[in-house]
Amino acid sequence: xxxxxxVGGSMAGLLCARALADHCGRxxxxxxxxxxxxxxxxxxxxxxxxxxxxxxxxxDVLERFFPGIAQELIAAGAVEGDLTRDSRWFMQGACLAxxxxxxxGLLMSRPFLETAVRRRVLALPNVQARENTTxxxxxxxxDNARVTGIKIGGETLTADLVVDTTGRGxxxxxxxxxxxxxxxxxxxxxxxxxxxxxxxxRRPEHLDGDIAAVTPPTPEGKRGGVMLAQEGxxxxxTLIGHFGQAAPLDLEGFIEYARxxxxxxxxxxxxxxxxxxxxxxxxxxxxxxRRYEKLxxxxxxxxxxxxxxxxxxxxxxxxxxxxxxxxVQLDETLGQGSHDLAKRFFAxxxxxxxxxxxxxxxxxLRMKETVGPRNAGANIINWYMSKLQKAAHHDPVPxxxxxxxxxxxxxxxxxxxxxVVWRVLLGNLRPRSNAAAEERSVQAAAGH
Length: 448
Ligand SMILES: Cc1cc2nc3c(=O)[nH]c(=O)nc-3n(C[C@H](O)[C@H](O)[C@H](O)COP(=O)(O)OP(=O)(O)OC[C@H]3O[C@@H](n4cnc5c(N)ncnc54)[C@H](O)[C@@H]3O)c2cc1C
Hints:
The strands form 4 sheets. The chain has an 8-stranded mixed β-sheet, sandwiched between helices. A 5-stranded parallel β-sheet has the order 7-2-1-11-17. It has a 3-stranded antiparallel β-sheet with strand order 8-9-10, with no helix packed on it. 35% of the residues lie in helices and 23% in strands. The protein has helices spanning 11-21, 56-65, 69-76, 110-122, 172-178, 251-259, 265-270, 319-335, 341-364, 376-391, 396-406, 418-429, 432-446, and strands at 3-7, 26-30, 79-82, 87-91, 94-95, 104-107, 127-130, 137-140, 147-152, 155-158, 161-164, 186-201, 212-215, 223-230, 234-242, 275-290, 302-304, 310-311. A hairpin with a 2-residue loop joins strand 9 (147-152) and strand 10 (155-158). Bound molecules: flavin-adenine dinucleotide.
């Protein structure tokens, strides 16, 4: 292909452009915003002000597309550590076992990561960006069988392939309908989530040097927190509340809310830590998945990608890594030619999305207020996962199985591997007195 256009220059757009650069003579990223020259938030990515975790799978793909980027980010201040040894994951009443897993975490703010990826992408000789440009619609052949470009202002920019990476608010369903195609079926799972984020100065004694603390919301309390070490010697802390449980913005109220989380360690850090800046809030009503792979008809020369296909409850930290995994699929699909591109790409992207979707939705359905399709199987899986997490308080085998799925490195059924099931059984059969004593020692080791 001679020319590829990527609509939207956020994480999905950048990763898509990177994949296209190996298959198109030239690639143009068309972005509504102007790109900041330094590490800064921008209007088109409001979620960038909130805690963003990069999963191990996402990190692996970044390294594949941009060799050396992890070291470059670390040298610039990103915080590195083992995701199980150097982090606290509080689930089912205690922290999961701490051990060296080889799952390498790379912690940094969203604009810090996006800026580094953007620099790498725009340094490619055949990629250019057209900033401050809003795409208003698609240009198509007379019979609407092929998308031939995009409409911007009074102008049409032509291309062999256009990819929509404009995120959750994508207009692709409407644009396709306007061309006589069907809209993709949309699945929604309502989680009514409120994010409140604040930053604090990080001190060496905090969490005894650990780099992350995660206490996910429980079905009972519906409150949780994610605190990650960031570049510049800081913590980002997002307090998460489902179904009307939003954390207050004022510092005192924010700290008091942290005191009500299932585990004390986040509160213990921030009650005496130096705050940086003001609080920010965001609402996230529902995980959404658009089923492009199920459409019978789709125009040639057009794809949809990233959050425009699916956006997940953000507490699982999946969106950027899913975009990265889709970029790998796009690269491989194009490597096999451009015939039937949409059909082949959407089938592969759907397989990528299946895993994070089932992880996020399956867990979210533990809350009875969550609105989405339920089945009896989900209850059994969630019962098993609670037992697995209990066994994982002491045993690295179920703990690693859990983290590998959460990092999109293994499919969910891998937690049912006979070796894991056996350890889950053993972990839950131990005499209660033993279990309680060990739990105390794990908690003591975790510093609370
Ligand atoms: C509160 C919150 C927290 C999150 N936390 C995490 C996390 O911890 N880890 C993680 O991996 N993911 C997280 N995500 C998801 C992550 O932010 C996205 O998955 C990621 O940004 C990829 O999205 P995207 O590039 O598809 O879309 P977006 O990031 O939404 O970007 C869309 C881009 O398109 C541009 N645009 C829109 N319309 C037009 C137009 N008509 N013309 C030109 N340009 C246009 C916008 O300006 C923007 O740059 C979180 C999301 C939210 C909401």
